[in-house]
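S1.2 Input.
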Amino acid sequence: MGPTTVVERGERTVRVPAGEVNLEGTLGSPAKPSGIVLFAHGSGSSRHSPRNRFVAAELHKAGMATLLLDLLTAEEEAVDLRTRQLRFDIGLLAERLVHATDWLGESPEVPYLPVGLFGASTGAGAALVAAAARPGRVDAVVSRGGRPDLAREALARVTAPTLLIVGGNDRPVIEMNRTAMDWMQGEKQLLIVPGATHLFEEPGALEEVARLAADWFTRHLVAAR
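S1.3 Output.
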């Protein structure tokens, strides 16, 4: 089944085939994008996350298209609200990110653009597994408060340049990211935002995340193009 596009409030709502399901996403793009960034949200979140939408808007200003994607269907979300199991099924989430990455390569909406992955929390683990599965297609990865440790077996196969951003007060996650960096073989960098907690809710913290992500994607996606 092919993708369907719905025009809604100035943004395009897309349905991306992923195996036996269709996933809903929000596609936004400046006039002449230099790359596209696919977002993988964290546990219990959705493509409507105000944090990811803010970062996406900043990436638009930097010349990047974005696709914010719900990796679970509405029915699966309802199950996950009760069980909290699917949000930690990194294999399932990564498989769907791979489907979405492949769709981006075929979509007339954003043809032939370099692809970056932006993952938050558990979504970062899925993004890194997907990057390992598509080494010739994913050109850069950014993790925000991510759990790269959840991608343990895949980390050594990630060839895309990867930026890990962690809040300075998110100490357990800092250690998880430092450990994960030891497992990674490709280009990698860990940047800590002073005074920020896991959700980067402090004044100026999310703005710094957006700036760092835009710089990373601009450097690596433009080079890939």
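S1.4 Remarks. The chain has one domain: 30-224.
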